[in-house]
Amino acid sequence: MTVSAPTIEHEVVPVTESPRRGRVDVRDVIVTIVGSLGIIAVVWFAVSAALSLSIVVFVTGSMAPTMPTGTAAIVQTVAASELAVGDVVTVTRPDTGTQVTHRIVAIDPAASSDERALTLRGDDNVNPDRDRYVVSETGRVVATLPGAGAIALALRSPLAMTAITLGAALVVAWGLWPRRESRRRH
């Protein structure tokens, strides 16, 4: 006895090339760029929160030539016990409340065991800062990018933040807006 296996019939469907094939759609490129920047921003905020990172911008030349005016630095909050002479740290001036970022030239014990008294000096300064800074934790510079500070400061302005927010919203709306081809098909 002979048994034959069932056969499966396939329907051949001709494939037509899309009229858009091979062309770059400007909308897709812009939406991809804006989406990528959004993802980078979300990742930065998550990583900076998890690792206690922040960005400082050098607005004076006291750390030149190593870190000239306009340099952006990534600063990580660390315990005073982790600091060493030669580290560049960001501290708050006790008299003005402004931040200063200088190099540690001396570390001495302070009243509390978890505190240290830091003597700082800008690389371009002849003398150390007149104040000693007593800290239990402070920001230590872990990376720098000369010139990026001007961009960071510009992006923090209210006008820039408004423009970025509106621009991103418009790009998202544009990306979600039906294309002409889609409207004709339906």
Automatic annotation (TrEMBL):
InterPro entries: Peptidase_S26, Peptidase_S26B. Residues 38-107 form the Peptidase S26 domain. GO terms for molecular function: serine-type endopeptidase activity; signal peptidase activity. The keyword RNA-binding does not apply. GO terms for cellular component: membrane. It is an enzyme of class 3 (hydrolase). The chain crosses the membrane at residues 29-59, 159-177. Signal peptide: none annotated. This is Signal peptidase I.
